[in-house]
Amino acid sequence: MINIDHLNFGYTQHAKLLQDFSLDIPQGHIPGLLGKNGAGKTTLLRLMCGLLFPHSGSCRIDENEASDRSAKFLEQIFMIPEEYYLPPINIQQYIKAHSPFYPNFDMEMVHNILREFGLDEKRKLHTLSYGQRKKFVVAFGLATNARFLFLDEPTNGLDIPSKSQFRKVIANFFTDDRTIVISTHQVKDIESLVDHIVVLDEGRLLFNQSMMDISAKLALTKSPEGSEKVFYDEDIVGGKIYLTENKTGKDSNIELEVLFNGIMTNPQEINSLFM
N or C terminus of the chain with fewer C-beta within 10 Å? Predict the structure, then answer.
């Protein structure tokens, strides 16, 4: 479990990005971390991984304080940043050099995922395209069998077929004892993966609900009835789409992009549905 308790952080003492921030993420879920540029998403991921240190408060993963960066903690986490450096060696050499840091590393898994992505293990990492390098890092990260994976904009640089491969690989190798936190602007790319939505705005927690509860409480429609409360509307080809209260008694299909826009526009009234 990830437990963030009354955390405060800023890149300077006078400019606080996260203030009195608290969030719990239970084990065995894939939460989507959404927000505008500068909302604090990448900062929050780095705090979870112990790459940044809070000014006060705590960030704990399975009772390990992230900022302590103990060996026990580090072998159970893996972060895929948006930008990263890979050395001028081939894929096989990288795996041989770095896999021993992860006691549960699965060689068969990494080979299978690399084949799925169409990556030749003899290729030099620095000769790969941006998208190919991202595929490799995703393959290696999953094969670590780390219980906590943190992905920052994982679909940036991937073409449409590769985004489909990414979703397939994540779904196939996700297990109930793992947690995968995905921070992204490309909400449509992760729509079929995430089971929880966390929205940040200017360093504060704006929304935090499971997809199950969201689909039970909210609905999308092109023609709302008079009794349905409209929280947000958006122009589409041929008319409008409305984010409304779900009064059907059945789970609805929610588009994350519309949901996010609705939360950013009308957070108080949408949150009131879940109280």
Answer: C
